[in-house]
Amino acid sequence: MFQKFKHIYETKYKFLLLIPILMIILALVQIGAQYATTGDFVNKGISLKGGSTITITEFQGLDNTLLAATLSSSFPDSEITVRALTSAGKQTAISIDSGIQEKEQITEVQNILKNSFQLSEKDYSVEVIGSSLGDAFFSQTIRALLVAFLLMGIVVFFYFRKVIPSLAVISAAFSDIIITLAIFNLTGMKLSTAGVAAFLMLIGYSVDTDMLLTTRVLKRVEGSVMERVYGAIKTGSTMLVTTLIAVSVTALLVQSDVIKQIMIILIIGLLVDFIITWIQNVGLLRWYLERKKQ
Question: Is the pTM of the predicted complex or chain greater than 0.90?
Answer without folding.
Answer: no
